[in-house]
Amino acid sequence: MTTLAEAERLDAEDELAPFRERFVPISDPGVVAYLDGNSLGRPLRATAERLRQLVAEEWGGRLIRSWEERWLALPEAIGDELGRVALGAAPGQTIVADSTSVCLYKVLRAAVALRPGRDEIVTDTANFPTDRFLVESVAAELGLTVRWIEAADVRPEDVAAVTGPRTAAVVLSHVDYRSAAIADLAAITRLVRDRGGLTVWDLCHSVGSIPVALDAAGADFAVGCTYKFLNAGPGAPAFLYVNARHHAEFGQPITGWMGAADTFGMAAEYVPAPGIRRALSGTPPVLGMAGVQEGVALLAEAGIDRVRAKAVALGRWVLSLADEWLAPLGFEVASPRDDDRRGGHVTLRHPDAERLSRVLIDNGVLIDFRRPDGIRVGLSPLTTSFTEVRAALDRIRELAGRPE
């Protein structure tokens, strides 16, 4: 059923519903539904308070002393908690640093360096632009060849078809940014490892939305952002993961002072810090990390398994509404219908999607348009309700049915 009563019943039974009160209310009265949390999550009340306290006390009161007292340890401390809560990573392998693009560049260069004599990097043509651009850039820098997977939904057999003794690294997204299709991280990692290559996983659309098990899968490297399902704020720092088995040989190309063995030794030559800290380069963005810390803490309280269960239920709800209301208006579902293969959003395809997206946003339904014809319905389990989704798709039905 797709009735309002059914939406209200689902909300009444939702164990995560109380968490909505932990977020700053949407101040714009014209917003019908915010369905773009898979691009930018909503702000936490705790983050606002944490920033106030940080500015007034740690920065305003303790001043430069806060670096030694607290701030220098934040990249690793938050990284360890993020690894525990959301990545299936033991301590000492995850660190908060830079943007996703910079983190990806670091680990990709490191991965290729660990496989001398191999001259190919593999990625897919449907991967996020940053991933594709950086793969091409690193390949050009080092004289390597890019092998492309021509598929929008990468499966192990697709990877098998383009990997072999020349493969240095395989760069893939765990969840496709357009369709929300989930790649088989464990199977692909195992396949690449058996062929002597290394895996680099982009977790931007999975971290905080679906359980990830990097250690169990034997993943080599991973990167991801924190401003989507972790709600850390616009431009909040990203993270990178390096499996402990690579730490002794891991070398990243942006060798700044924070990644040195003696940060304040001002040595004549660079000596890398032991372990994951060598992945750092410049001064940590302390204000941005406050949002990451609060977002991870909230996810720990909610539990990734409960978050995933609600994401699945919200996805089913969108599919039901889309089939009943939107299919007759020319919409098609572009995301997997299998719950186990669908991430935290549902993409609807329509031939007039670009124009409709602008109309929807102007009328209070905040979604994302993805070329050429996709409207992404982002489902953030800690903030999105079933009645909100129903109201949004009802508005989509109304607006799509109007003549231009």
Uncertain stretches: none
CATH class value of the largest domain: Alpha Beta
Number of domains: 2
Question: In angstroms, what is the radius of gyration?
Answer: 22 Å
Alpha carbon gap, first and last residue? 31 Å
EC number: 3.7.1.3
Protein name: Kynureninase
GO molecular function: kynureninase activity; pyridoxal phosphate binding; transaminase activity
Catalytic activity: L-kynurenine + H2O = anthranilate + L-alanine + H(+); 3-hydroxy-L-kynurenine + H2O = 3-hydroxyanthranilate + L-alanine + H(+)
Structural features, described:
Its cofactor is pyridoxal 5'-phosphate. Keywords: Aminotransferase, Antibiotic biosynthesis, Hydrolase, Pyridine nucleotide biosynthesis, Pyridoxal phosphate, Transferase. GO terms for molecular function: kynureninase activity; pyridoxal phosphate binding; transaminase activity. It holds the Pfam family KYNU_C. The protein has 404 residues and is of the alpha/beta class. The chain folds into 2 domains: 4-44 and 303-400, Aspartate Aminotransferase, domain 1 (Alpha-Beta Complex), CATH 3.90.1150.10; 70-301, Type I PLP-dependent aspartate aminotransferase-like (Major domain) (Aspartate Aminotransferase, domain 2, 3-Layer(aba) Sandwich). 39% of the residues lie in helices and 13% in strands. It is built from 13 helices and 13 strands. Strands 2-8-7-6-5-3-4 form a 7-stranded mixed sheet, sandwiched between helices. It is globular and about 70 Å long.
